[in-house]
Design brief:
The protein has two domains: 219 residues, UDP-n-acetylglucosamine1-carboxyvinyl-transferase, Chain (Alpha-beta prism); 212 residues, UDP-n-acetylglucosamine1-carboxyvinyl-transferase, Chain (Alpha-beta prism), CATH 3.65.10.10. Helix content is 28%, strand content 25%. The protein is built from twelve helices and 21 strands. The two termini are 30 Å apart. The structure holds shikimate-3-phosphate. Monomer.
Length: 445
């Protein structure tokens, strides 16, 4: 896991346009869910295109520790043999979640309605992240918790069966919290409901249905209401994971910014609850064309043809924040080299990601020579008008705070800078995008 690796600094500098065709790895959110649901279905689930990043491997190891078999075949297709809903085993030792908030929060939901005790541990970044948001609803269902400082890892979960079905209104727009409650509801007799005032990524709902869970999605007073019926009986599936739009985002912005670029990014998932970045980039003047729109694994997918473009700053509508919540760091890079000002608001959740992404990006961009003003809930960025950023001064490096998306965003900034950007640690990139450095080298060849 990333916390045991020594830091690996790297200087990213321009090395010509990005050209040709690349294929980004599988979607992280979908990969976690495929393994978790496969581990709850009796029989063999086969998963192709699984993201083999550290975060997903942490989920795989956790499901093995609770009785499932999760193995990679020689053809790269993963095979999961599940234990059945209600039959997760008590793990013998603590589950190491590494850097992964999604693994932790979704698994906390899964184990809450099983009569097992599970200890979760993680790296320095994950150990700072708030877990109260899942502890609150899962405690209402009957689970109990002991955690450092009340809600931080290391955390002991004492699950319960039978658990109590609840109706829970999400106080923050969070797919992780929604999914934790729905997963707990799988082994809970009766109906468990989540009310979602602001829609968040719906991969859990789509995949639960695909596995045969009884799940309904309705609407009341503008809110989404998701109902899952327990106790569920999941049927094994064959799943193809589409490419991760959150990974494609780095290459899309790199191609927009670096002069002469003309790049096709194949097989990009474009679920509307995820893909808002590409719309914002088009509003800024970015040439991003969708080719061959199709469906892969129940999700909309297309190839994206991206060409170098002159960008103009925009005022980003806070209503679309959940549909690009992980893409703000890379949007900030595009904004820093656009003409005019980009304003973002309503980004409070960015402060509790793998790092405080508002402060981390404000500091990193300022060091690289961008004009950035930090607000409590967002950044205001005055762009260079198409000129490259100066880059980091000699002897200085941007701090990634164990956050893959800060590392990759500043890498892209480096490609479009005059003197390059020194990133203090590239090891976190392996949590979500292990092929990033190779693809970057290949596309610039
Ligand atoms: C995720 C949900 C988002 C996102 C994270 C993955 C998921 O977190 O930031 O990278 O797979 O459900 P929140 O639900 O906390 O916003």
């Amino acid at each position: 896991m990333s916390h045991s690796n020594p830091p690996s600094p790297h200087r990213f500098a321009g090395n010509g346009p990005l050209k040709g065709r690349i294929r980004v790895p599988g979607d992280k959110s979908i990969s976690h869910r495929a393994i978790m649901l496969g581990a709850l279905a009796v029989g063999e689930t086969r998963v192709s295109g699984l993201l083999e990043g550290e975060d997903v491997l942490a989920t795989a190891a956790a499901m093995r520790a609770m009785g499932a078999s999760v193995e990679r075949g020689p053809d790269g297709v993963w095979s999961v043999h599940g234990v059945g809903v209600g039959s997760l085993l008590q793990p013998e030792s603590a589950l190491d979640m590494g850097n992964s908030g999604t693994s932790t929060r979704l698994l906390m939901g899964l184990v809450a309605s099983h009569p097992i005790d599970v200890t979760f541990v993680g790296d320095a970044s994950l150990s700072k992240r708030p877990m109260q948001r899942v502890i609150t609803p899962l405690s209402q269902m009957g689970a109990a918790y002991e955690a450092r400082d009340g809600d931080r890892l290391p955390l002991l979960s004492r699950g319960i069966s039978p658990a109590v079905p609840i109706t829970y209104r999400l106080p923050v727009a969070s797919a992780q919290v929604k999914s934790a409650v729905l997963l707990a509801g799988l082994n809970t007799a009766g109906t468990t409901r989540v009310i979602e005032p602001v829609p968040t990524r719906d991969h859990s709902e789509r995949m639960l249905r695909g596995f045969g869970a009884k799940l309904e999605v309705g609407e009341e007073n503008g809110a989404r209401i998701i109902t899952v019926h327990g106790e569920a009986d999941l049927q094994p599936q064959t799943i193809t994971v589409p490419g991760d739009p959150s990974s494609a985002a780095f290459f899309a912005v790199a191609a927009l910014l670096v002069e002469g670029s003309d790049l096709v990014i194949e097989n990009v998932g474009l679920n509307p609850t995820r893909a808002a970045l590409f719309d914002v980039l088009r509003d800024m003047g970015g040439q991003i064309e969708e080719l061959d729109r199709r469906e892969v694994g129940g999700e909309p997918v297309a190839d994206l043809h991206v060409r170098h473009s002159a960008l103009t700053g925009v005022d980003v509508d806070p209503a679309i924040v959940p549909a690009m919540v992980d893409e703000f760091p890379i949007l900030f890079i595009a904004a820093s080299m656009a003409s005019g000002t980009t304003t973002t608001r309503g980004l409070e959740e960015l402060r509790v990601k793998e790092s405080d992404r508002i402060t981390a990006m404000a500091n990193a961009l300022t060091l690289a020579g961008a004009r950035v003003e930090e607000r409590e809930d967002g950044l205001i960025i005055r762009g260079t008008g198409g000129d490259p950023l100066p880059g980091t001064p000699d002897g200085a490096a941007v701090t990634t705070h164990l956050d893959h998306r800060i590392a990759m965003s500043m890498a892209v900034a480096g490609l479009a800078s005059s003197d390059g950007v020194e990133v203090d640690d590239t090891t976190p990139i392996a949590t979500s995008f292990p092929t990033f450095m190779d693809l970057l080298e290949g596309a610039q060849g």
